[in-house]
Known about the structure:
Elements: H1 19-34, H2 43-52, E1 77-84, H3 89-92, H4 98-101, E2 136-139, E3 144-147, H5 151-154, E4 160-167, H6 173-182, H7 192-200, E5 210-216, E6 243-245, H8 263-284, H9 287-309, H10 317-323, H11 333-345, E7 350-356, H12 367-388, E8 395-400, E9 404-405, E10 423-424, E11 428-433, E12 441-443, E13 445-446, E14 453-455, E15 458-459, H13 460-470, E16 480-482, E17 485-487
Parallel strand pairs: 1-7, 1-8, 4-12, 4-15, 5-6, 5-7
Antiparallel strand pairs: 2-3, 4-11, 8-11, 9-10, 13-14, 16-17
Amino acid sequence: MSPLPAHSPWRILDPAAPAPLRDHQLGINRRQFFGRAATGIGAGALASLLSKEGLLGAEPEPGGLTGFPNRPPKAKRVIYLFQNGGPTHVDLFDYKPRLHEVHGKPVPEGYLGGKRFSTMTGDPSGKLMLQPVEPFQQHGRSGAWVSAFMPHTAKIVDELCFVKSLHTDAINHAPAISFLLSGAQIPGRPTMGAWLNYGLGVSSEDLPGFVVMTSVSKGTSCGQIFYDFYWGSGFLPTRFQGAKFRGSRDPVLYLNNPDGLSSDLRRGLLDDLSELNAIKFRAIGDPEIETRIAQYEMAYRMQTSVPELTDFSDEPDHILAMYGPQVREPGTFAYNCLMARRLAERGVNFIQCMHAGWDQHNSLTTELYTQCRDTDQPSAALVMDLKMRGLLDDTLVIWGGEFGRTPFIQGDLGNRERWGRDHHPYAFTIWMAGGGVKPGITYGASDDLGFNTVENPVHVHDLQATILHLLGIDHERLTYRFQGRYFRLTDVHGHVVRPILA
């Protein structure tokens, strides 16, 4: 068979061609194909052929990619309570009695091993060890150790799976947060919620599949910047990125109609605009045009869903009391936690609540109390609220930050009001609940001073692989071709942490 001429409308570009050019041409070819009835080959057959060759493109339908989930999922949704700034594991959940013995003494030889620390620490040699600020006690049937900083979390330890051997590659905040949420320290990769939107589709008709809310404790000086790439879609089409809800009664900008514009008139304008965009899409095949259409439609549907979502008048008083006194105040962590439960009830797949202020370089004895007061009760309430409603079994709740804090002090040991700890990527703690993880267990361990992981280390990519596994996704199969290679959340790494699976 002679090859097709270069000018043929049916010619398929070489797979090695640049992805944007190939995708554009394929969009045209698909349109031309399906627009011509008498072709001699069925649409299904062609789709199968192109898919096998990696030429069909990777645009999922609203229900997600074909074949996903590729195993029975334990979790249908994720609520990630992300604690920006690096909560101090040795002061909250990772009890190390020996820290009391070595308090005020130099870091023992053999623990540092040439490790990198932030520029604020520089050379850690000679740094003085620091004991926990508050005492620890064991709680529940599991006997989990929890600091007095977290009295409400202490009451639910039998619902939690503590992972005390997490470690990461990054030593500063933005790269570490990006690494944990996207698998890369440099911004530009799709974040976890975007990957799930892409692979699994959107469950709710009236709300985005990926919602982000942010908060900062009042009176704290160590809040982190919330960069948009923490919920970005990277090289995936932008319709998969997180929708940021503002901390107000009106969480979505431009949702309400301006004065003089009725819903019917807006509907007509959107229909006309969608048709114009559709004509443009048929002409050039740019997937971002489809994104624009989808965003306009979602905004229209959210006009009725969002006001109902933010109206807490149907919440019983005892539920509001569970979340604490700040639950009625938009923009607080407590308010966002209750919003997270309401979003989960309404079919949102990935809810990311980010709370900044955990960067205690010189405020362990002051602002750490504020952080814990603002986050402890709402976090525990969310877990119990989900359980009471029968939602915890298929909702994965994750609590944790981008790294931990050093077991040695940052600052003057003699000035207790200014005690602090620096960034520590080599061992830190998170907890998980529901969604297919074993409750009431502790997995992994750091050494006797909380410096390094010594038992069942869990890398960030392992955590990502495990989250995807719980959602029914093989992390090696959820890929997207970009710039000549296939990318995935876990890059070329990651192993499922099977001992924590229920």
